[in-house]
Design goal:
The chain is α/β, with parallel strands linked by helices. Strands 5-4-6-3-7-8-2-9 form an 8-stranded mixed β-sheet. Helix content is 41%, strand content 17%. The chain binds cytidine-5'-diphosphate (CDP) and magnesium ion.
C-alpha cells in the first residue's frame, strides 16, 4: 500500500497504515518460516500485488466505545436459544426504535415513502410490524423485490423469525415458482409477479398493504407498477383511458402503499405520489476507507482475485464481498481462488467461498448468511444483488471492480443486448457502504480515483429507458390501457421505444392496425414470457409441435447454465455437447434433444453427470415446462408432438423470432436483415463452424463484439410465408447464392 500523504499529520490514517504495514511484515515473516511449497505460493501473491491509493472516508457515526458496547451485547445474546436470539436480533435493528412511529404514519397516510440504509430492517421487519399491528386481518401484506433471489431469501428469513414454515403464513412468489398457500399473509414476490397479478386482480383486492421495496432500483416492473397503482387503485392517472376493466375495478381508498428505498433521493417518489410523506430511518454506519488503484486494471477479474488473496493473507479478520457482473465471472473467480489457496497450508486461515447470483439454487443461497467460524474468512462473490437487496452481516472488505451487466436497447435497430458497463457513482457508493455495516471497513475500488470522478455517471439510467418494452406494452394493452403516450411513467421511456414495441407487437400479430389487442395478443399475454417466446408457443399450434416448442422455451428460459465445462475436462465436455448437435440441427433443437434424452432416462442424475449437463438447470427447465404445458390448455393449444419434423419446429421458432434474422457475409460474419448490423455466431453455438447462410438467433450478447447466442438455420422463404407484413420477397432474395456454384447454398440447408 502506497502512502499518500508525505506528511503524516495530514493523513488521518497514518496510524492505521503503519499498523497494516506491520501486518504485512508479519505475514512476510511467517512466509519465511513456512515450507518451501507454500512460500512459492505466497510469492506470487506479492508479485501480483496491486497498489491502491487511499483517498477518502465516509463519515463514521459510531465511536469505539459504542462499538465495544455492541460487541458485549452481541456476546450476551449468543447464549440464548436460537429463536429467542432471532427475536433479540430483531430488536437490535436500526428500524426497531421507530416501530411505533412508523405504524402511526402508516395509519395516518395512504402512501408513505420509507428511506433507510440497507440492512436497517425495512424488508424483513416492516411487513412483520404491520402484521403484528393487525393489518393482516383484512388481507395480505405484499412486498415486492426486484430480484428473485432476494424474494426467496428474505421470505425464508422472515418465516424463521416468525417461527413458521416457509410457504405457510410467510411465502414467496417468483416466476415459475409459487411458494405460497391459502394461509399466506406475508407474501414476498418479484415486482414482475405483482404486475402479472394485476391481470387477474387489477384492484389487488386480496391485499391490505402493498410494499414496493427497493424502489431505488427502478426496474421496469417497479416503474410500471407505480403507474398501474395510480390508475387502478387511486384513480388519479386520469388521462389514461381504461376500457373494459373500468367496470370491475373498485378503487381502493383502504389499501396502504409503502414505497421503500435505500437511497436518499426519495423526493422524486414523494413528488410522483402527490407529495406523499417521507419516513426516514436514521442509519448506523461505520467509517469505510476507500482505496483506488494507482493505474487502471486491464483484467478486473484477475485484479479482484489478487486483492482477495492480499486481504486474506495480510488483513485482520473480517469477511470479503466482491462484486462481479454475472454467474460466469463468479464461477471463474471461484475456481481460480480455490486453486490458488490450495497450497497455502494451515498457517493461513480457511477461506470459505460463497457465490451468490440469480440462478444459484436455493439450498446454496443460505450459505452466504451462515456465520463465519473463528479463524476462517468468508469471501462472498456476488452480482449486484448484494448492492442493496441482500445484507450480509460481517462484511469488512468490499472489492468493487466497478462494473455490472446492463441491458441496453437501441430502438432504432431494435437490438437489445446485455453489456458489461461501468457502474454509476451512486451504485459505487452503495457497494462501498456494504463494508461498514457492522464495523469499520475498507473498500478496494479496482479503478482510479480519476476514473471515478470523470468516467462514471452520477446515477444509473432507469431500466425503462434502456430496454425493449414489448412485454410492458402487451401487458398494458391487456389491462385495457391504450393511451401509452399519456401513461403516467415516473420517467417516460423514449417515444421511439414505445413505437418500436407497438410495431413489434403488430408484426407478431398481437395488435391490430388500430393498436388494439387481438385474439393472438390475448393468448400471448397468458404466458409469463417475452412476447417473442409467447408467440413461438402460440404459433406452434399451427405447426403441430407444441410439446417440442414448450420444451425449447423452457430450456431457453433457464439460460446458459445447461452445459457444464470443467477446466480440466473441456475436451470431454465439448465432445459430449457436440453429440446433441449431430446433423447440425441448431442450438434450439440441440436443447430439445438434451431434454428429451434426459426424459428418456427417467430424469437420471447420472446421465447428466455423464453428459456434462447441470442437473439443477435441467430440473428447473422441467418445472418451467410443466407450468407452460399447463397454460397450453388455457389458451386452447393442442399439446401435439412431432419431434422429427424439424422444419415445423423451426418455423414455429421463426414465427416468434423473425425479427432476429441474419444473413451470412463473405467474411464469415453476419448482417441482420432489417436495420443491418454486423453480428457473429457465438463460439458456444453448435453452428459456429457451420456458418449457414440464413439464421434466426435467440439473443445477442455483447462481449468483444455482438454475438448471436442460440442459433438455428432457416430458409429465407419462410420469412415471407410466416411474417408477410414484415418481410417482402425482395428482402429475402438470395442474390449471393445465385453467383455461387449451383446448389452450394442449398446443400448446406438440406
Ligand atoms: O431491507 P433492509 O436492507 O433495510 O434490511 P433487511 O433485509 O430487512 O435486513 C435486516 C437484517 O436481517 C440484516 O441484518 C440481515 O443480515 C438479516 N437477514 C438475514 O440474516 N438473512 C436474510 N435472508 C435476510 C436478512
Ligand atoms: Mg431490503
Amino acid at each position: 500500500y502506497k502512502d499518500v500523504g508525505a506528511d503524516d499529520k495530514l493523513n488521518p490514517f497514518a496510524e492505521q497504515e503503519a499498523w497494516e504495514k506491520h501486518q504485512i511484515g508479519k505475514a512476510t515473516m511467517k512466509f519465511g518460516a513456512a515450507d518451501k511449497k507454500s512460500q512459492d505460493d505466497y510469492e506470487f501473491i506479492f508479485e501480483d500485488q496491486i497498489q491502491f491509493i487511499q483517498t477518502s472516508i465516509l463519515d463514521g457515526m459510531k465511536d469505539e466505545e459504542e462499538e465495544k458496547e455492541d460487541e458485549k451485547q452481541i456476546k450476551k445474546l449468543a447464549a440464548k436459544s436460537a429463536f429467542d436470539k432471532l427475536q433479540e436480533d430483531r430488536k437490535m435493528l436500526p428500524m426497531f426504535p421507530y416501530r411505533e412511529e412508523l405504524l402511526k404514519a402508516v395509519e395516518q397516510y395512504q402512501v408513505l415513502v420509507i428511506v433507510g440504509e440497507t440492512g436497517s430492517g425495512k424488508t424483513t421487519q416492516i411487513p412483520q410490524y404491520l402484521h403484528e399491528a393487525g393489518y393482516t386481518k383484512n388481507g395480505k401484506i405484499g412486498c415486492t423485490q426486484p430480484r428473485r433471489v432476494a424474494a426467496m431469501s428474505v421470505s425464508a428469513r422472515v418465516a424463521e423469525e416468525m417461527g413458521v414454515k416457509l410457504g405457510h403464513e410467510v411465502g414467496y412468489s417468483i416466476r415459475f415458482e409459487d411458494c405460497t398457500s391459502e394461509k399466506t399473509i406475508l407474501k414476498y414476490m418479484t415486482d414482475g409477479m405483482l404486475l402479472r397479478e394485476f391481470l387477474s386482480e387489477p384492484d389487488l383486492a386480496s391485499y391490505s398493504v402493498m410494499m414496493v421495496d427497493e424502489a431505488h432500483e427502478r426496474t421496469v416492473s417497479t416503474d410500471v407498477l407505480f403507474g398501474l397503482v395510480k390508475v387502478f387503485l387511486f384513480n388519479n392517472g386520469s388521462v389514461v383511458m381504461i376500457s373494459f376493466v373500468k367496470d370491475i375495478t373498485r378503487f381502493r381508498p383502504d389499501i396502504k402503499l409503502l414505497i421503500s428505498s435505500a437511497t436518499l433521493d426519495a423526493e422524486k417518489f414523494s413528488a410522483y405520489f402527490d407529495g406523499a410523506p417521507i419516513f426516514r430511518i436514521p442509519g448506523r454506519r461505520y467509517p469505510v476507507d476507500i482505496l483506488y488503484t494507482k493505474a487502471p486494471e486491464a483484467d478486473y477479474l484477475e485484479a479482484a482475485v489478487v486483492t482477495v488473496l492480499q486481504i486474506h493473507v495480510t488483513m485482520p479478520p473480517g469477511d470479503v464481498l466482491v462484486f462481479f457482473t454475472g454467474q460466469e465471472e463468479i464461477e471463474a473467480a471461484e475456481e481460480i481462488l480455490k486453486t490458488r489457496t490450495r497450497g497455502l497450508g494451515t498457517r493461513i486461515g480457511e477461506m470459505i467461498i460463497c457465490p451468490i447470483y440469480a440462478n444459484l439454487p436455493s439450498d446454496l443461497q443460505t450459505k452466504i448468511f451462515e456465520e463465519t467460524p473463528e479463524g476462517a474468512r468468508k469471501v462472498v462473490l456476488a452480482t449486484n444483488i448484494a448492492e442493496t437487496s441482500l445484507t450480509i452481516d460481517g462484511i469488512k472488505y468490499v472489492i468493487d471492480p466497478g462494473f455490472c451487466k446492463q441491458k441496453s436497447y437501441n430502438p432504432r435497430t431494435g437490438m437489445e443486448s446485455l453489456i458489461v458497463t461501468p457502474v454509476s457513482k451512486a451504485a459505487a457508493q452503495q457497494r462501498t457502504g456494504r463494508a461498514g455495516r457492522t464495523s469499520p471497513g475498507k473498500c478496494f475500488r479496482l479503478y482510479t480515483a480519476h476514473a471515478y470522478q470523470t468516467e462514471m455517471d452520477d446515477n444509473t439510467v432507469p431500466e425503462i429507458q434502456r430496454t425493449n418494452l414489448g412485454n410492458v406494452v402487451l401487458m398494458l394493452k391487456s389491462l385495457g390501457i391504450h393511451d401509452l403516450i399519456n401513461f403516467d411513467f415516473m420517467d417516460p421511456p423514449p417515444a421511439e421505444t414505445l413505437l418500436r414495441a407497438l410495431e413489434q407487437l403488430y408484426a407478431l400479430g398481437a395488435l391490430n392496425d388500430r393498436g388494439e389487442l387481438t385474439k393472438m395478443g390475448r393468448r400471448m399475454a397468458e404466458f409469463p414470457l417475452d412476447p417473442m417466446l409467447s408467440k413461438m408457443i402460440v404459433a406452434s399450434d399451427k405447426f403441430k409441435c407444441a410439446e417440442e416448442v414448450v420444451t425449447i422455451c423452457s430450456m431457453l428460459t433457464v439460460g446458459n447454465s445447461i452445459f457444464y465445462r470443467p477446466k480440466d475436462k473441456q475436451v470431454h465436455a465439448d465432445n459430449a455437447r457436440m453429440n446433441f448437435h449431430s446433423g447440425n440441427v441448431g442450438d434450439h433443437l440441440a436443447l430439445l434433444k438434451v431434454f428429451d434424452s434426459w426424459k428418456e432416462t427417467d430424469f437420471s442424475t447420472q446421465w447428466c453427470y455423464e453428459n456434462y449437463i447441470q442437473v439443477r438447470s435441467m430440473k428447473r427447465a422441467r418445472d418451467i415446462r410443466d407450468q407452460l404445458e399447463g397454460l397450453l390448455e388455457r389458451v386452447e393449444i393442442e399439446a401435439a408432438s412431432n419431434p422429427d419434423d424439424h422444419e415445423a419446429i423451426k418455423k414455429a421458432i421463426t414465427s416468434g423470432f423473425f425479427y432476429h434474422t441474419a444473413k451470412l457475409q463473405k467474411n464469415g460474419s453476419y448482417r441482420t436483415l432489417k436495420n443491418p448490423q454486423t453480428v457473429t455466431i457465438h463460439p458456444s453455438s453448435g453452428l459456429s463452424q457451420v456458418l449457414p447462410r440464413w439464421v434466426v438467433y435467440h439473443e445477442l450478447v455483447f462481449t468483444t463484439k455482438e454475438y448471436m447466442r442460440q442459433v438455428i438455420e432457416i430458409k429465407p422463404e419462410w420469412l415471407v410465408e410466416i411474417a408477410p407484413h414484415y418481410y417482402k420477397k425482395s428482402d429475402v432474395e438470395d442474390t449471393a447464392s445465385q453467383k455461387m456454384p449451383k446448389g452450394r447454398g442449398r446443400a448446406a440447408m438440406d
